[in-house]
Specification:
424 residues; alpha+beta; 8-stranded mixed β-sheet; GIY-YIG endonuclease; 13 helices
Length: 424
């Protein structure tokens, strides 16, 4: 029976449970080795597979890495090489993810659960299996910001959305591209760089880029040298601050999914959230919060003291603040509006927007005590959509905006209420 080590580092890494002969029984990845391994040596209930593995294990070893991404990639390589029998991945790899680099003239990098679809009649390169599909997509997303590549399954006549947001060079998925040798070579270099990152060869890639940067500077090609320097810095930042970047990627996923949900032509940049706060109509206030690219922009927050409604009628109060807001033509109009409420709130906002000749999609959030019972009403859709059907990134974004609007309204209400109490 394996014993708990005396000191376990609080750092990202992979851990390997081994038997008495030194054979690897199980490989895992951790953002914090200390926290993850604490589970195995705690009294918490564990499934039969884990209990059996711990009974056969003689020791646990680990390797530390600079970031969770690097540990994630190292885990894949170790599992692939050692094939530990207690890793579920080799029992049913249909549920696991792979990164496939196709053998097209402009190779595409695609995530899939069935790599054999790409390898049966081609020489596509497969990386995986990856235990965490979400982390694979996150890693590829940030690699793509540094080394743009194509993911379009079919060629098309016009530049795709990914070209316009800097994710690919554009020509890679056109039906009849006209390119230079430098553009072709640059794309192939991008694919080669991503291959090295997926293979866990970050240091090798950095050394190569630094060598190229020095050579370009020696030839006085300073613009190219600066471009390479920027790539080096982005790679180093990515692996040094993986947790921060993971949050950014999670937020961008929420915006991407919101784009699909609302059938928008591009991800929404400005989102406004509204809420009402009052006690039986007294000290009634409304709030408007603004999120820009998924982040709260508190300089744009606005609060409204209800002027025309003196009874407890949240719907009428909402109508007042929306009408007042839309008269501010000096404020940027939002791409999306989120409001606390249900169908009635949705209709109220849609009516006000029609009167102002604006086409802005609205989401009305109805919350129950349990998220499983909460849902949203969306412009253009008849039925409510349960929050449980949304991706975690989209759900969290909507809930965050709603909570921010709620707290901002409550704060203003309490301020007015306390001010009145002091007067009395």
């Amino acid at each position: 029976m394996v014993k708990k080590p005396q000191k376990i580092p609080d750092r990202p890494g992979i851990y390997l449970f081994k038997d008495k002969r030194g054979s690897i029984l199980y490989v895992g990845k951790a953002a914090s080795l200390k926290d993850r391994l604490a589970f195995y040596f705690s009294k918490r209930e564990k499934d039969a597979r884990v209990q059996k593995m711990l009974g056969e294990a003689d020791r646990v070893e680990w390797r530390e890495y600079d970031s969770e991404i690097e540990a994630f990639l190292a885990e894949v390589q170790e599992i692939k090489e050692s094939k530990p029998r207690y890793n579920i991945v080799f029992r049913d790899d249909k549920q696991y993810s792979y990164a496939v680099i196709t053998d097209d003239p402009f190779p595409k990098i695609i995530t899939t659960h069935q790599p054999e679809v790409f390898t049966q009649e081609s020489s596509s390169i497969v990386f995986g299996p990856f235990v965490e599909g979400g982390t694979l997509k996150f890693a590829l997303k940030i690699f793509r910001k540094i080394f743009p590549f194509c993911t379009c399954r079919k060629p098309h006549n016009n530049f795709c959305l990914n070209y316009h947001i800097g994710n690919c060079p554009g020509f890679c998925c056109l039906k009849n591209p006209t390119i230079t040798d430098d553009q072709y070579q640059g794309y192939q270099e991008n694919i080669k760089s991503v291959k090295e990152l997926l293979a866990g060869q970050r240091q090798r890639l950095l050394a190569s880029l630094k060598k190229d940067m020095a050579a370009e500077a020696q030839e006085h090609n300073f613009e190219k040298a600066l471009e390479l320097r920027d790539k080096i810095q982005k790679i180093e930042m990515t692996f040094a601050n993986a947790k921060i970047i993971k949050k950014i990627a999670f937020r961008e996923d929420g915006l991407d999914q919101l784009t699909k949900l609302l059938n928008l032509p591009r991800p929404p940049r400005r989102i406004e959230g509204y809420d009402i706060s009052n006690i039986q109509g007294r000290y009634a206030v409304g709030s408007m919060v603004v999120f820009w690219d998924g982040n709260p922009d508190k300089n744009e927050y606005r609060k409204f003291k209800i002027k025309t409604v003196s009874v407890a009628d949240d719907l009428a109060m909402l109508g007042e603040i929306i009408e007042r807001r839309l008269k501010h033509h000096d404020w940027l109009y939002p791409d999306v509006i989120i409001v606390d409420g249900g169908k009635n709130q949705l209709k109220k906002l849609e009516s006000a927007l029609r009167d102002s000749l604006l086409k802005i999609p609205v989401i009305a959030l109805t919350k129950n005590n349990k998220h499983s019972g909460s849902h949203i009403f969306v412009s253009g859709k008849r039925s409510a959509i349960p929050l449980s059907r949304l991706t975690s990134a989209t759900r969290d974004l909507i809930l965050q905006i709603d909570e921010e609007a709620h707290h901002f309204a409550i704060g203003y209400y309490r301020k007015l209420h306390s001010r009145q109490l002091r007067r009395n």
